[in-house]
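User: Hi! I'm a student and our assignment asks us to look at how structure tokens line up with a sequence. Could you show me two examples?

Assistant: Happy to help. In each example below, the sequence comes first and the structure tokens follow. Example one:
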Amino acid sequence: MSPTDQGNRSAPARPDPLPLPVVDNHAHLDIRRDDDLASDGLDLAAHVERLVKDARAVGVDRIVQIGCDIESAELTAELVDVHPALLGGVALHPNEAPLHAERGDLDEAFAVIERLVEHPRIRVVGETGLDYYRTEPEGRGAQQDSFRRHIDLAKRTGKVLQIHDRDAHDDVLRILAEEGAPAKTVMHCFSGDMAMARECVERGYYLSFAGTVTFKSARELRNALSVVPPSQLLVETDTPYLTPTPYRGGVNAPMLVALTVRTMADVLTMSVADLCRTISATSEDVYGPW
């Protein structure tokens, strides 16, 4: 989960359908931005239904819904029971962990996550990791401790680990090496350079790219994408954030994966159909059948 950049706030049009189905590997369907609330006037249930329907219409037929605080984690467990297109992930976001530590209820909060992870359609522990952009140095110890606990939880339960890494590349990789990463580890919204991408590939991690890869300024990120084998690639929106070009700064939606996939295919000099086929198969390998 990341704040959006300012930019084009016009309502996105439904993109051209993809030639084959693909998965949005990371979305927060329950998070409503103020401009989104003002524009659609829908309650949450109708809002989620609309997002799922619009995505399906362009070939984004499966979505991983992520809940990263207690309220959204509990809601995620409800949503995956209602919508067959959704699988779920739950965790305490890196910026949540220091807040719970300050209040003295981190153990209780983590116990809720442990309980929710037992749900058979919750396939992900995440997003967890480190965020040095929003957390001051005094809170980073609690953040790192929480990250280690989530790594252990993913390994104990056999779930996928989805990692949030903002301005903390070295410590994320260090802690994963120290703890031993789960068999299936996904770098959500990958933001590193080519060297980091190569290291993640060598370690066997999956790299998920968001709408940021479409930004004109993101040349280094596209260079990083270019060294990732298609078999270790995933794609995401991080809805409602990180909206791809030409809607950068507006409200994101899973249907806009179609724009990011086309940019990725261009960078990789692959056909869009081949990339969709590969991402779809990889997503099922990582998360299991929907």
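Example two works the same way, sequence first and then tokens:
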Amino acid sequence: MTIDSTAIESIRAIAEGATESDLVRYRGIRTWTEHIVSPLAVEDTVVQTMPDVSPTKWHLAHTSWFFETFLLTPHLTGYRSPQPIFESLFNSYYNSVGAQFSRPERGLLSRPTLAEVLEYRRVIDVGIAQLIERGLLDNSACRAIFELGMRHEQQHQELMVTDLKHVLSQNLVEPIYRERADAPNSLVSPLEWIAFPEQVCEIGFDKSGDAEESPFSFDNEGPRHRVLVGDFELATRPVTAGEYLAFIDDGGYRTHSLWLSEGWARVRDLGWQAPLYWREDDGAWTQFTLSGRRPIDRSEPVTHLSYFEADAFARWAGARLPTEFEWEVAAEDVPVEGRFAESNRFHPGPAPAGAPGLTQMYGDVWQWTQSAYGPYPGYAPAEGALGEYNGKFMSGQMVLRGGSIATPAGHVRPTYRNFWHPPTRFQFSGVRLARKR
């Protein structure tokens, strides 16, 4: 499965918001998913290395299942699923739809084969084309599900990359997913601070005001509401790998007073000594990347940190993590530009030298905030199965902002709320410091 450079440029333009027909946008997003898969061997697509990781083949099927379940089956007259058992095999967590195959056991599914899953995708693509050609997207309910389905696939594109990195990292061969020729960068932009005054802010996606420029948002981004944000300062860039090495060298993983209780328990019980994928051999630090094992580049943002590690580093640095509201206030007027998945880099890069103001607010690494993931005032999940999309997860997780090197361009906004459990390390997650003015 190969995709030429012209097709990739077309996909990038679509992902970045070019005005295209519904069918062209749909095909562009689906093609990018298969671009992600194109370097893989069949064997790579079936492995599951931990319960939080899903096999690539499962992602390919599940994203198709979503369109089939919520669009084709209820709305396309005459549509019949080619494999009714897929209803449970590739249902992730929608209890309203029916039973689900156990998430930790997805790696046991040697069948259907990858070829059968790809054929399933073709069937779904034909069905969506028919749905569009028949004008069914003129129905507002169908339109909303169609748009959600495409953003849902983009979320799984990012998950495919992060899951695949974990899969390949467990192989002693340490396979290379995509070659990357850039050399380490010796220039490190100075960390400075931008001050923000105390203010009452409008937080969240504005369905009325932003409709023309960015018509889509997930339900957890609203309702828009007012929040009092105290005065604060935000670092101009994320923490670098070199700065994190200083934390390690200063005994950061041996100093219990820096850690939240649950985080310290993880350090003690799991033997954490550095970010995920880092390794020290004879005093030299390297990290596994999707372009192979490489020396640590001190100028790059540190990545693959848990919330606990990000919080401990902030304490060590005499600072703290920003709240998600502080982050949104700071990011509101920053262009949504940066290194995203379409760069084909799949590893964060250094901050641009000499750039004024806030840099790397978007792309490169997700930024942990100190905010628990919960509903905004007035939030109510949608009725029916799609009400299970976000609301049911509003417990025990922390909010991240900004996107990463694995996030599709055009997918994030200033109001976008990602969320993961505090111990999570396999995401491209880093840290930006905040402090009181």
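Here is something you could point out in your write-up. The CA atoms of residues 199 and 229 lie 6 Å apart.
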